[in-house]
Amino acid sequence: MSAHEHAALPDLRGLESSRARVEGTQYRPNDHERMSVGDRMYVLRREPRNQRDASAIAVYARGRAVGYVSTARAAVIAPLLDRLGGAAVVNGIGTDTDSSRLWVELPEPAVLDDFVREYETA
Length: 122
What we know:
The protein is of the alpha+beta class. Helices cover 30% and strands 29% of the residues.
């Protein structure tokens, strides 16, 4: 997905959020990626036809799937993401320098709900 295509997605990066581990990832960041500091742009994309979880939300970085939002968190935010068209941009912090775990910033549900209501009336 190009930067132009990202511009068409709802941008949730300014919302109050909390850090969440990206689950089910097979992606392994290289040393350069681990040493980079600062926020990264991720895309949350719904997968309503996912056979394991109808609330599944995939996490994309640089155009490729890198994992999923946990089942518990996806169950809460999936209906809201659906109302935004099924995809949105969020911040991520990538990995810690001594880890290969990826982290993403997920909007707080109440704040996301307010955002969705405003988005729908705009």
